[in-house]
């Protein structure tokens, strides 16, 4: 099912997960609950499904009231749609003030009481034109490609309704694999943990996709992938049309890998993680009203490490297509590998 992602459909997407089993199943006595895989402990209050969601409309949601994500996809290609309540397309109405109607109220009432409703409405409006609200749009989609994950048994995805945590888990010949996602209210960060089976490692390629249903076609995008002090940074920025009341928005995902021999390297506009005993993704979203806000890189300084390195902008390249970050002298960018980049998703 291919449904544009607007605010109304985003909020109603939760209803589309009704095909999943509720916990406890007594809420739907006429519906047989899917068998619970042996490695899964169901939450006291939640929902679960034993099939991967192939579309965002069937994904499970996590959020804190301001930002959040829709998590879906199969183990070979997992997908997360990031959203924020301030991701709205500017349309020039930001500074619009309501009309002053107090002086026309008495005349409007007289005309309405006389039964002349059309003239009453015209008097009250006094030439005021209809103003459309700013249209909500999704942010972008983060993709985790693990093409080697072809053996999947006992698959399950769960939402704990008490904590807002979403879990994807499955087994193969090596043991249990698990992913956990939640949205922090205190830090306004979406946290995503990837855990391999015992004795195995996380090996995945991270990329972003901005061309989603519901994203305005007149928004331009730039993506950068960098590495600083062993951590990867994947940054997507969308620039709004100029002169409409806001400059743009962005998402920054910090990729923290642990484990002996683990690595994160930039490969074009993707990040490649290898041999990680655990992978932690921290994503922050922001929307900027002016170019000054945009250029201050507010999402990056929050991380407790130095800012990621970004190659200098080419001469004459506008910021809307190639944002530029000044790197501290202590950081260095991982060289792009040659001939070893995985193919794009």
Secondary structure elements and their pairing?
Blueprint: H1 7-12, E1 21-23, E2 46-49, E3 60-63, E4 67-74, E5 77-84, E6 88-89, H2 105-113, H3 117-125, E7 135-136, E8 140-145, E9 153-160, E10 165-172, E11 175-184, E12 189-195, E13 202-209, E14 220-228, E15 231-239, E16 248-258, E17 263-267, E18 270-276, E19 278-288, H4 291-295
Antiparallel strand pairs: 1-2, 2-9, 3-4, 4-5, 5-8, 6-7, 8-13, 9-10, 10-11, 11-12, 12-19, 13-18, 14-15, 15-16, 16-19, 17-18
Order of helices and strands: HEEEEEEHHEEEEEEEEEEEEEH
Please tell me what the overall shape is.
elongated
- Average pLDDT metric: 80
Work out the number of β strands. 19
Widest sheet: strand ordering? 1-2-9-10-11-12-19-16-15-14
First and last CA, distance = 21 Å
Radius of gyration: 24 Å
Helix content: under 10%
Q: Tell me the number of helical segments per DSSP (H or I, 4 or more residues long).
A: 4
Find the structural class using helix and strand composition.
mainly beta
Amount of beta strand:
35-45%
Main β-sheet: number of strands, strand sense, barrel status?
10 strands, antiparallel
Weakly predicted, low-confidence segments:
5-19, 25-31, 305-339
């Amino acid at each position: 099912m291919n449904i544009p992602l607007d605010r109304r459909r985003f909020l109603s997407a939760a209803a589309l997960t009704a095909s999943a089993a509720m916990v406890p199943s007594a809420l739907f006595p006429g519906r047989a609950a899917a068998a619970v895989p042996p490695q899964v402990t169901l939450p006291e209050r939640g929902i679960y499904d034993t099939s991967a969601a192939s579309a965002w409309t069937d994904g499970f949601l996590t959020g804190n009231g301001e930002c959040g994500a829709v998590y879906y996809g199969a183990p070979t290609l997992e997908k997360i749609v990031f959203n924020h309540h301030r991701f709205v397309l500017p349309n020039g109405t930001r500074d619009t003030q309501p009309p002053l109607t107090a002086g026309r109220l008495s005349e409007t009432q007289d005309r309405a009481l006389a039964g002349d409703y059309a003239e009453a409405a015209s008097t009250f409006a006094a030439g005021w034109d209809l103003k459309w609200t700013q249209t909500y749009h999704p942010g972008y989609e983060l993709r985790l490609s693990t093409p080697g994950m072809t053996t999947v048994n006992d698959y399950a995805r769960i939402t704990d309704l008490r904590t807002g945590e979403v879990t994807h888990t499955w087994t193969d010949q090596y043991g249990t694999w698990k992913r956990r996602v939640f949205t922090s209210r205190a830090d306004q960060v979406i946290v995503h943990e990837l855990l391999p089976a015992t004795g195995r490692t996380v090996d995945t390629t991270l990329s972003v996709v901005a061309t989603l249903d519901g994203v305005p076609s007149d928004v331009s995008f730039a993506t950068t992938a960098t590495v600083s002090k062993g951590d990867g940074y994947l940054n997507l920025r969308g620039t709004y049309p100029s002169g409409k009341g806001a400059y743009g928005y962005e998402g920054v995902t910090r990729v923290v890998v642990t484990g002996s021999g683990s690595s994160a390297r930039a490969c074009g506009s993707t990040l490649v993680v290898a041999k990680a005993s655990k992978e932690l993704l921290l994503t922050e979203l922001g929307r900027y009203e002016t170019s000054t806000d945009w250029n201050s890189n507010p999402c990056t300084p929050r991380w407790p490490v130095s800012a990621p390195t970004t190659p200098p902008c080419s001469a004459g390249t506008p910021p809307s297509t190639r944002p530029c970050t000044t790197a501290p002298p202590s950081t260095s960018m991982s060289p792009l590998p040659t001939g070893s980049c995985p193919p794009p998703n």
